[in-house]
Design brief:
Its cofactor is Fe(2+). By secondary structure, this protein is an all-alpha fold. It has helices spanning 3-9, 21-37, 46-72, 80-91, 98-110, 125-129, 136-140, 151-154, 157-205, 226-231, 238-243, 259-269, 281-287, 289-306; strands at 12-14, 17-19.
Length: 307
């Protein structure tokens, strides 16, 4: 598409930094959908509300099961038709194409909580929560838009197609919702649902690197946060995830709600999910922060006796 190189590679300078076409489009898109969501009290119907809830789970679990655990971390395998179906559901979350989402997330794990982290907390809560979305160069390392760390996805025509067309699918969804239910459906099933899950997802990058508890020795700021775990379909058990990035399951305890894992487990039982990766008990013991603290205390007592 002729417009894409210009959108990505032609930055302009204002407000103290460089912006490219994608940055500017992101500002306008998120501003517009936030403003549309403000109309929610004036266009409320129960059918629109419940459709929004349903799409919140369809598109949200699409992100967590597809973009995150399946594509970014290869935590399990699915038949191609099902893999592509979940990816298409995720596209309607308005969180970018599969190539963009996976690229920035892989960079996050590679450079977690350092200046090279796409949503580093070192630049403050606002940046780690949403400001990074408006900085293409920070997300992908440059303005060339080549997305170096997703070569496995670039080989598949389907993901390249979604990369170049994903905004049109979201627009088409909005048109369909409006034709079916008018403004209530557009406001609640598109705007409110999208905004709510966007901020839930953003909170994994911001809130879960500030508030919560750490049970694993990960060497970073990742935290387990029960509220984010509930709202983000299991993604809020973020310290668990950083300890075992490859794990298809992120809620390790029975009380750690992980809806995405429940779906993966169901797909495994019926034979659709294979090569499901989970940490062993030995791996958990080696990573447990409590074991490290206990070991350090024992070493300290030994050193005291020697002295």
């Amino acid at each position: 598409m002729a417009w894409l190189p210009w959108m990505v590679r032609k930055p302009v300078y204002f407000l103290g930094r460089q912006w490219n076409g994608v940055d500017i489009a992101s500002v306008f898109t998120l501003s517009a959908i936030h403003l549309l969501a403000l109309l929610a009290p004036f266009h409320f119907t129960w059918s629109a509300f419940w459709l929004g809830v349903a799409l919140y789970y369809v598109t949200g679990v699409g992100v967590t099961i597809s973009f995150h655990r399946n594509l970014a971390h290869r935590s399990f395998k699915l038949p191609k038709w099902l893999e592509y179906f979940f990816a298409y559901c995720a596209v309607h979350s308005l969180q970018g194409s599969p190539l963009e989402w996976v690229s920035s997330h892989r960079s996050h794990h590679q450079f977690v909580d350092t200046p090279n982290d796409p949503h580093t907390p070192l630049k403050g809560f606002w940046f780690s929560h949403i400001g990074w979305i408006f900085d293409y160069r920070k997300r992908f390392g440059s303005y060339d838009g080549k997305l170096y760390n997703v070569g496995d996805l670039k080989k598949q025509a389907y993901y390249k197609f979604l990369h170049y067309t994903y905004p049109y699918h979201c627009i088409a969804c909005g048109v369909v919702l409006y034709r079916i239910g008018g403004m209530p459906y557009l406001v609640w099933a598109l705007a409110v649902r999208t905004i709510f899950f966007l901020h839930v997802t953003f909170s994994i990058n911001s809130v879960c690197h500030i508030w919560g508890n750490q049970v694993w020795d990960t060497g970073d700021l990742s935290k387990n946060n029960w509220l984010c775990g509930f709202l983000a379909h299991g993604e809020g058990w973020h310290n668990n995830h950083h300890a075992f990035e490859y794990s298809a399951r992120q809620g390790f305890e029975w009380w750690q709600i992980d809806i995405t894992w429940y779906l993966i487990r169901f797909l495994e039982i019926v034979g659709l999910a294979t090569d499901v990766k989970l940490p062993t008990e030995l791996q958990k013991n080696r990573k447990a922060l409590s074991n490290k603290i206990s070991s350090m205390e024992q070493e300290g007592r030994v050193e005291t006796k020697v002295k």
